[in-house]
Amino acid sequence: MEHITTDICIIGAGPVGLFAVFEAGLLKMRCHLIDVLPQVGGQLSEIYPHKPIYDIPGYPDVTAQQLVDNLMLQIAPFHPTFSLGERVENLQRNEDGSYNIITNDGTVVHCQVVVIAGGLGCFEPRKPEIDRLTDFEGKGVAYMVKNPEHFRDKKVVLAGGGDSALDWAVFLSNVAERVTLVHRGDTFRGAPDSAEKVFDLAREGKIDLILKSNVVALTGDDRLREITLLDRDQQVSHIEADHLIPLFGLSPKLGPIADWGLNIDRSAIAVNTVDYSTNIERIYAIGDINTYLGKLKLILCGFHESALMAQSAFKYVFPEQKLSFKYTTVYGVSAF
Amino acid sequence: MINLTIIDRDGGSRSVEIPEGINLSLMEVLKASEYDILATCGGMALCATCHVQVIEGPEEYFTATDTELDVLDTLPYAPPASRLACQIRITEDMDGMVFKLVGEE
Ligand SMILES: Cc1cc2nc3c(=O)[nH]c(=O)nc-3n(C[C@H](O)[C@H](O)[C@H](O)COP(=O)(O)OP(=O)(O)OC[C@H]3O[C@@H](n4cnc5c(N)ncnc54)[C@H](O)[C@@H]3O)c2cc1C
Ligand code: FES
User: Fold this and answer.
1) Which among B13, B48, B18 has a CA at the least distance from the CA of B33?
2) Which domains does chain A have, with CATH numbers?
3) Which residue of A44, A52, A78, A198 is 20 to 30 Å from A297, comparing CA positions?
4) CATH number, domain with residue B28
């Protein structure tokens, strides 16, 4: 269980959460970011990394992933810390007004201010209908590959037909004892390159490819041992497995934040446009997750909201100091 | 007017009337008619949250395009005649069609 102390805890490492680190950093506030995804970038890295974006000031054209990479460079001087692959579950208010944010992995972040930059919500894996799937979560079933070493010399079954299923099948074929890829169709529509690689590896006997089939049930004791498959002709078969990784994409859900007593309007958090504060003191909401009259779900608008949030959050982090506004160009970006 | 019948996830059905000549996708019409349809990617055939199934209508609507199949193939289950509502342009020959919502709420 990790304990982290920071000034501002940012929930969501999408573009808006990342830029908030910069705005907070200029005012000497330290940030820790938490995201359920294993990588930073939010919707940009998860949904459209290669698409060009045309409405970022100063960039006539930039791909989504490039923008995320540049944001990471821009905030590097402020040394933000990250908990990736963890979902924020709970919020505890301490007597002195500070908060503890707790994740599903038990990480506790103690902070003076909470900034929710959760976008469309927590990106959660689409779970296929497999008998006893959830019983084996954490006991053989995982929906993402956080650390490939975890699968070394194990029997791994991947299910899915998209790019991540193909890419991980190729990668894990060098790590795992045995990799089996199960797909309900008989063609792959991911990047043609990866599909070809998978077919080649299957021909060489380095991957077991099971097409036109679905995983339908799991069995085991204290952990996963066997997987039941059903093919298009309704034939049942079984394979031994230490791990099952269903990779069917992600879908955003508002998740636990909905139960924190915040004013919620149609899955978005209502805020005061003076500083993007919520109805709960010391909690702000910026970017796609908030709503107010005239709200536009654009990166640009989230960036603006980050700046106003940081000016307002300053009073909680440095209650003894008075903030006077200065252009960044006056002092430059002084790191800490 | 173009009349469509939409079967909701709970099995209930409702009809939607669409004026002729509007340049919208089925996803946009469903959103405007307050159906619970996420359409996370805004109609770019990237997210599959506008997933529908064609129940009744002209034959050509039962087959997804390649762009749609790219996305539908990544789902755990896609029933026959699965389509992405964002990739279906509303036209007059759709009058009387029946669709079922399949994508997650
Ligand atoms: C296909 C597409 C094209 C787009 N094109 C443009 C464009 O050209 N220009 C433009 O300005 N905008 C565009 N947008 C919109 C833009 O992507 C969003 O406005 C932007 O991503 C919002 O950033 P954000 O940081 O608020 O949220 P997000 O990018 O959604 O990031 C939020 C992050 O928070 C995480 N999170 C949420 N809840 C939790 C929790 N409880 N625990 C842990 N993590 C959590 C999520 O996993 C996610 O990674 C586009 C969107 C899409 C889908
Ligand atoms: S709205 Fe995303 S695929 Fe149709």
Assistant:
1) B18
2) 3-123+251-317 (3.50.50.60), 127-248 (3.50.50.60)
3) A78
4) 3.10.20.30
Instruction: Report yes or no for ipTM above 0.90.
Output: no
pLDDT digits (tens, 9 = 90+) for B49-102: 999 999 999 999 999 998 898 889 888 888 889 999 999 999 999 999 999 999
Is the Cβ–Cβ distance between B91 and B32 less than 8 Å?
Answer: no
Q: What residues in chain A have their Cβ under 8 A from chain B's Cβ atoms? A: 43, 47-48, 51, 120, 126-129, 159-163, 165, 184-185, 187-189, 214, 246, 248-249, 251-252
Residue of chain A minimizing CA distance to B77: A128
Q: Does residue A79 sit in helix, strand or coil?
A: coil
A43 appears as a binding residue in the annotation: yes
Subunit contact A251:B46, Cβ cutoff 8 A? no
Distances in Å between the Cα of A39 and the Cα atoms of A10, A44, A74, A146 are: 15, 11, 17, 10
Please give the model's pTM, rounded to 2 decimal places: 0.88
Residue in chain A nearest B69 by alpha carbon = A189
Residue from A74, A55, A90 nearest A306 by CA? A74
| Furthest C-alpha separation in chain A | 73
As beta bridge partners, residue A88 has: A103
- Three-state SS for A101? strand
pLDDT tens for A97-156 read 999 999 999 999 999 999 999 999 988 888 999 999 999 999 999 998 888 999 999 999
Q: Are A90 and A101 in contact (CB under 8 A)?
A: yes
